[in-house]
Model the fold of this input.
Amino acid sequence: MRKKLVAGNWKMHGNLAENNELLNAVVSGVAGLRDASVSVCVPYPYLSSVQATLRDTNITWGAQNVSQYDKGAYTGEVSTAMLKDFGCTYAIVGHSERRTLFGEHSKVVAEKYLAAQNAGLIPILCVGETLEQREAGTTEKIIEEQLKAVIALAGVDSLSKAVVAYEPIWAIGTGKTASPQQAQDVHEFIRSGIAAQNAGVAENLTIQYGGSVKANNAAELFAMPDIDGGLIGGASLIASDFIAVCHALQN
Ligand code: PGA
Done:
């Protein structure tokens, strides 16, 4: 059975005091969860304190981005080895905010994905279309291109050590969630495209949905056959909401 994963994406939110309060509540709220994984992807400066808080819990942690370079004169960048130093399990790569606001194109995303894997991190590879692309009927083409860049560089087998997150850009932070069927259709498209290249890898691949997942819609999304959990932005900042989303995995 493939692994289900709920990962919080805190984005550029939080401070030491709030993070502690949030995590302490989440730790006790998900302590009894079985067969499900919970993680939080936090801003770099908080990795050390998050590691200290979560070390002996059933929650893992990760970063929201990572450099494609190992080390060197790359002012402002953070390497995979640095993330490993702070016990990270995951690194999000290719989030749409990185792609659109910071100009990360698919080739750079693929390089980050490969660098993360080479360091023993699990990349959470985000893919998704804009509203214009959906309305133009090019959703599948866009997602195929985003995946192709990664498969061309790292190979299809690399997906056995990765998570894919389908995040329609029009649903991120907007309160507009894809309907469970809309999301399922794209998840199925992703899984079947990969299955054509390696059926075993496709079957075991965790594909998260992301985009306005909340306590009141998580269960119906996670009930779809190809949706294996979620990447959660806004709702991951409110303990009771995030805990409810995590529990929705078990229904
Ligand atoms: P949201 O963000 O849940 O706030 O829509 C999801 C994401 O960007 O990963």
